[in-house]
Please model this.
Amino acid sequence: MSPLSFFLVHPCFKALRSLLILCCFSVLIQFTLASKARHFKWEVGYLFWSPDCVENVVMGINGQFPGPTIRAKAGDTIVVELTNKLHTEGVVIHWHGIRQLGTPWADGTASISQCVINPEETFVYRFKVDKAGTYFYHGHYGMQRSAGLYGSLIVDVAEGEKEPFHYDGEINLLLSDWWHQSVHDQEVGLSSNPFRWIGEPQSLLINGRGQFNCSLAAHFSNSSSIQCKIRGNAQCAPPRLHVLPNKTYRLRVASTTSLASLNLAVGDHKMVVVEADGNYLQPFAVNDMDIYSGETYSVLITTDQNPSMNYWVSVSVRGRHPQTPPGLTILNYHPNSPSKLPTSPLPVSPRWDDYVHSKSFTNKILALQGSPRPPVHYNRQVFLLNTQNKINGYTKWSINNISLVLPATPYLGSIKFGLKGAFDHKSPPENFSNHYDVMRPPINPNSTHGSGIYKFNFNSTVDVILQNANALSENVSEIHPWHLHGHDFWVLGYGEGKFSEKDVKKFNLKNPPLRNSVVIFPYGWTAIRFVADNPGVWAFHCHIEPHLHMGMGVVFSEGIERIKKIPNEALGCGLTGKMLMNNPHT
Amino acid sequence: MSPLSFFLVHPCFKALRSLLILCCFSVLIQFTLASKARHFKWEVGYLFWSPDCVENVVMGINGQFPGPTIRAKAGDTIVVELTNKLHTEGVVIHWHGIRQLGTPWADGTASISQCVINPEETFVYRFKVDKAGTYFYHGHYGMQRSAGLYGSLIVDVAEGEKEPFHYDGEINLLLSDWWHQSVHDQEVGLSSNPFRWIGEPQSLLINGRGQFNCSLAAHFSNSSSIQCKIRGNAQCAPPRLHVLPNKTYRLRVASTTSLASLNLAVGDHKMVVVEADGNYLQPFAVNDMDIYSGETYSVLITTDQNPSMNYWVSVSVRGRHPQTPPGLTILNYHPNSPSKLPTSPLPVSPRWDDYVHSKSFTNKILALQGSPRPPVHYNRQVFLLNTQNKINGYTKWSINNISLVLPATPYLGSIKFGLKGAFDHKSPPENFSNHYDVMRPPINPNSTHGSGIYKFNFNSTVDVILQNANALSENVSEIHPWHLHGHDFWVLGYGEGKFSEKDVKKFNLKNPPLRNSVVIFPYGWTAIRFVADNPGVWAFHCHIEPHLHMGMGVVFSEGIERIKKIPNEALGCGLTGKMLMNNPHT
Model:
């Protein structure tokens, strides 16, 4: 045996070699994990599906509803090749809560950030998920979110980073509401004269599953609801949450409802709220929590209850007289049977109009110590009064008396190229009459359509005061959850009645939470602050799908001059398409 | 008074002056009428409507259903500025029967002649109606025709020209079928596995009006149908045909049905058929007439019956076991009340499967003497076998074993610019196996998708033999009415079973009718001849909407090199859009 071969077969060298290979692999894996591109090939199409045990047509992805969950790590690049397999409809997908830093064309808003993807076409969404948190994605064209085009997007902390709280397991809860009337018909009704309201949802869904006309908890109900009989493999079978006793679980909760504001409770279990919209909170414990459309939360529950029982997970409607039974599923303690129904009654949810309860919850939401703090001063203050209105007899929602209509040419391109006639070049008003009585129906309910934008100086600090008011009918003022694209904002405060300059003093500049969605309570106001530091065009709108459809939104833009090259794929329609076809090197 | 002023006021001169002005006007009017551009501004949108007394959502134009009737004179230019007011769907309109000589981009076929018009966009259709006749228009994207997107297009003879028959008045009958299930859901069902057939229509409509679940003629019926109670202004009130006694009326009949083949009869009145698809026929008299989807006819009726009575106009289903009651309205002799129901029973329509009756009618359709005659020889002969098939478990229709799928990029542009990868560049087969047994279900039912085209030499004469066969089930062979875009063709003959070369001898080259639509009978063949003299890309397909949706069509192209400039507006999607944005001067 030569010395070399001796060396190679010597057990000591063998171990050394193994270790060396292991180390190399480990470094390689770490490197790969550190910042990974995660590729997805998706096809959007209609499916027959029974979300609430009643067969209907839903908009799904790759043959499933809800769409697949994206799971990534902070710093990863998400690449979704989205092919439109609808028959005659365009489609886009918005990545709700992802700021799209440097990729404003990937925000997935029809008429704002891109042209819609037409049938049989493919568009590649490529964007970075820079911040860990609980997010989701959904259609942002017409009312395609309501049609079922949504799914979860979960970003874990980057490799080597740690969450500021401990948990043993994780459970995902994507909440939505569901109608039996097709979204196409809903759209026609909302834009008809006489106006036809969509009404309350038939069912609430947890992870796309609900029960129409039956209740899992019928035996506790004093109504006439019947006990559900669901086959185990039914599409509407409740998604049972399997847990081990004496562990802590992170529930990742997101609401993609079309209309409903929700309250979530887990029977006999406290919830500790630790994250909202991808930002850490000062932890606080509650028995039930509100969640408005467009919001996400992480809450921790500890499975410290009697382990021989299962427990209810219940979702019910807030802020509107509920005509929809609660959405239910079961927290299933191992090794109990997942079909074993809880023996305790449903958790008591607050009365739908108990706004004191809701405000109490909302006021507990504060940033975790050490979170970024807002600039002390604003550069610009914008007041946005939302009112219900009439335009030529059609019922609309307006902001400062302008009801948003989106143009055929996406703003991102038309602003970038300075195209005339793409949208109203007059900026919409930044304020409303001092004399407007927010407590009564509008004296003059008429408003006008508009497509103008609010243009902010790059890096300026903007305060927005969202002002609620009485709707068209006496004594009606609704909840509106507003969502901002491209940014997180600080929630500086909430108040009752009409905002006044004195209220500025009450702003919380110490530990306001960072969020991308925030509620305005009936007859109240909400103040937010953000830094216009993300070049792009960004929708800011009520996340209630029919309200947006009826014009309840505005459009912000900043730093467009800093955007170098928008991919043609996002611009091939309307005036930008025309311009590029005539003169491509503009 | 000066001699001049005397002259000017002299009555004789006054008369002369009036005459002069009249003459000038007349010339001016004649000139204007001779070749006029007729402008229309249309908005396509969804409406709540009750076509058959049951409220539904229909696709209408300018708030009406069916769309407005276009009336023009031969030689006129039609200009339709079409704005898409749908929420998320593209749209196009096909001008059925108009050959689009020199304007192939205005044929209104999605994926073939143009990119779809997206919501809020406007496309201008500008084309010449060169030939008098009865036509119609309809959506040609997805199944939007079935959704209600259709209307009449009537071209009168040019000023100074005369029709080869006399009539005193004219009545328009646009026939269609109607489902209560939304077209969106129909589309999903047809493209699902398991396959879901749309079933028979709920109602037959005459000028967009029908009656579901009641009958105008209930008192004659031995079924349990109830007498209709319709308010006079109801959207489903039958469109009564007002006539004077002892006159001759031209009924212009068009069928835009999604599925149903129809039989039309007018109680106690003979019909003299004089025109088909914009071409004059050798007149022939019948008691009832068949009309297949995509066909148009003019028939003359003489109001020579007892003038104190009204008479039934009845439309019933042919070729499929009818589950739809007849569509009815009333021929109303002046001065009888239009609400006075006829006292005679419904005209007897032939049994749905009495193909002998249908063939007898079809064989009477011959060109009026003096009509253009076909070239005596063909340059190319194409056999098209239509079969029902399976592709990966999905139910399809195929032609020579290829089921048509339309590409994202319209052929007209991708062929013109020689773009690679826009569609299958391999031409589809021109024939099928000699051994194929058309009388039995396919031995191997599997077929494949394809998007290839048949390319014809410019000005060549093409014969197409359409061969019917047994569907997937035993003893089923259906009627298929085929429609050719961009051309009229001569119908050389029909036959039973499998076409053989001997059948060529039986071709009618003497007085074959010119048409744009023709039927293939169950287990039969139909032979047509046309001259490929119209530069463009032209669909040739079964006019049954769900059959086309399931792949039952082919695409022809000819003389693309002769097309100078296709408007960019028709090309701004898919690969042509991409190409033009990168390099606009190709």
